[in-house]
Amino acid sequence: MAVEPLSQKEIEDRLAELPGWSLDGDRLARTYRLSSHFAATAMVVHIAQVQEELDHHSDLTLGYNTVSLTVHTHSAGGAVTAKDFELARRVQDLAPGHGAE
Which residues contact 60 (CB under 8 A, 6 or more apart)? Predict the structure, then answer.
């Protein structure tokens, strides 16, 4: 089944439900700042597990105490889809209370 790109309005509405997430060009994006490098590394491992479960993968960047993600759907021509928001929501659930950079 093909995944359809979301409209700009749909993206804006869904972003309103995900504090700290934003649209960066054609991708959803968020940076989390954690208490330590170890905590950031652990979060990356948990995100990788979620991505495997969803069979949908973001670009992840691990910094000293930060984790940055960007995601869009390649099979929809690099557009933002519901799959991206599902991944963002699952990541958000992993790290409640973490502020965006």
Answer: 44, 47, 48, 67, 68, 69
